[in-house]
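Recall that a protein's primary structure is simply its ordered list of amino acids. Everything else, from secondary elements to tertiary packing, is in principle encoded there. The following example makes that idea concrete.
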Amino acid sequence: MKDKIFGVLQRVGRSFMLPIAVLPVAGLFLGIGSSLTNTTMLKTYNLMGILGPGTIAYNILSVLSEAGSIIFGNLPIIFAMSVAIGMAKKEKEVAALSGAIAFFVMHASIGKMITVMGGAEKLLAGSTANVVGISSLQMGVFGGIIVGLGVALLHNRYYTIELPQVLSFFGGTRFVPIISSIVFLIVGILMYYIWPPIQVLMNKLGDLIAGSGYIGTLFYGIIERALIPFGLHHVFYTPLWQTSLGGTMMIDGTLVEGAQNIFFAQLGSPSTTAFSVDATRFMTGKFPFMIFGLPGAALAMYKTSRLEKRQVVGALLFSAALTAVITGITEPIEFTFIFVAPIFYAIHCILAGISFMLMHILHVTVGMTFSGGLIDLLLFGIIQGNDKTNWVWIIVVGAVYFFVYYLLFSALIKKFDWKTPGREPDSEEPKLYRRADVAAAKAAASGENVDTNPLFKYEEAPLITSGLGGKKNISDVDCCATRLRITVHDASKVNDAVLKASGAAGIIKKGNGIQIIYGPKVTVIKSRLEDYLHDPISDKEITDNEIIENKKETVKETNKEDIKKEEKKESSASDYKVYAPIKGRIIKLESVKDEAFSSGAMGKGVAIEPAEGKVYAPFDGIIETAFPTKHAIGLTSDSGIELLIHVGMDTVKLGGTHFISHIEEGQKIKKGDLLLEFNPERIREEGYPTITPIIVTNSDDYSDVAENYSSPVDIGDNLLDIKK
């Protein structure tokens, strides 16, 4: 039950990301336009002659302000469409249209009910509002969320409906906006009676939250950060930012609901002398730990890293810290905490809560679009002036936070020897997020042939699909700022090792909801994954991947079974052999510094440190999977042995750079055929170990997988004896 609830909340949370992602742009438009047309501010900075009313600049900035304002003013319908898109399984464009239609119908119904029942004066003061030109109830974004959830439910149930022949034209997706209109006509009538009591309750809850004081702000900050790993923080703060739960205020004769809406209304009001701390208490606390605290933690990780790895670590951490400072996107650093040592993140959550409380106590009133970075601080704090915002305290508290994070995290890393970036084993490379796109672009710019496989254009998508248990196991695909959010039918089919090989920084599972952390490039990854899943090539690819990664018990080709029977007759010991595909030095598999291989989770086998950059066929058989990144090959012998040859550690990040493939999926191979070429020196220069695991992925089908070699090994030497 808990897993089901979490899955639903996760999908709701991710559906919020689409409208929330628009807020930074809208906030910039509104912030720049409103700030630089506010006569009070213009007089303060003596800019009336340059930017005052009547000037060309004033007119342009007024347009900019209106462009931002229209987005915030119409968030309810934006939420209605976005939630419908996010919750719909397929035919999302139909869900979006149906969401808009249902929204209009519901509010039109409410508006007519208000008129029929005696007008707005019969209702509680301030309970009505103009919604997309309709006089309706003040439902805020809750109205949009209700519509979006309802339409998505109807859409998922009816988008494939078949009607009787005479009505068949209206079947399928055409039925969705029809049924949505009918249902929300009724919902609108019911809402006239249902929503006013709910509004009263929300107002009382808002008063209770406002009265919670500094302790309430402390717990808000802790909870908001604590929900980040689960992707539910948007569900938590959005009602406070956009509805009466976050407070109400009369501004220039208009009742405004929601903390963020109050701030932006004050931002555009010439009568504002100071922003409301009751609104900004849900926002301002992010600035000290995002701009100062987390960079301090990044410096701690850098200073405690090993000297030989500092160059790589420094580049990764500097990029992540700079992203946090400028944009407020902090998850690359935060998820490093989670996966290295959860206590890190627990401490971080407490410090975040204290930051929110301190900003409340010090009466700091800097608002934001959706994240507390330098851009928001400059626009909504510094430019507004210290008299309005008390923004100077952010610098003071932030400086303290920098040293607290640095000193505390340095001490903890050293004391407990936590494997933060730069402190991991030699075979592992420091990482916060993947760089496959950059590597692929570099390869293309240098003139290397990186498109020898038709799957290459999809990059990591085939590997992700395989790791999720195949195309048929994927129910829904979406993403937030840094995470791929997937709903699967059967969570037991998800393979963490394969997902890690795709470049994932971390994986979170809860029920059938899977979150895979890739960093800021996740939207690009999501698009490639969706394109790949819509390509018919994905049908065959997933079958092949399932054969390799999920260790199918049978070989589908009947001729393979016949050959296996013949070989079994010819071999008195019922043995099969795998010959060395690479020349080099033998390494025990358990010595490989990657748990996915060393633990035997993927199967038994050995590893080879290559002496040259060539991979040959270890037996007669077929190429089951030619990975688009060329770093790995999946093969099946004529006798049914399923083998994975994985060149190097984390080399999937190279995106095919320094590799030349001579194979394609389905290709028949003979022992000794050249399969792959790679440049070991260049790969090592890029910082990736070239240790190559050779894994029998269907080891469970055999009584024994025995090592039969001496080191060093040459091409064609007997490497493994496999007993039936």
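Residues 455-549 form a domain with the Gyrase A; domain 2 fold (CATH 3.30.1360.60). Confidence is low (pLDDT under 50) at residues 433-453, 541-574.
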